[in-house]
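Reopening this one. Same input as before:
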Amino acid sequence: MAKREYQIYVVELNKRVYTDNWRFRAANPQFNGVLECLYVGMTSKSPKERFEQHKTGAKSKKGHDLSSYYVKKYGSYLRPSLYNHINPLTSREEALKMEKALALELRRKRYAVWFN
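Same output, byte for byte:
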């Protein structure tokens, strides 16, 4: 059986997310409006498949929402130039660490970023 691989992905969000949502603003005090608003995630699917799940409001077999509110409402497109150099990752733990590390790195560069 092939070992599961994980992918980090980045979605560009419409900048309205920053003005519309106080939680997003509060998480990004460094944002000056020049760069983009982004969502960083991790998946065992392809980034394209995962983006489609977000945009269509996909549900799990148990009926749980698989989409992020931010990506579903404000997601524009994938930004592979920000994550292709990272993928693939061989464990879920490694992917979770990398998701957080990339999100914080992008915040340091003054992007507005949401991750969880």
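So the earlier flakiness isn't reproducible anymore. For the record, The chain has one domain: 7-114.
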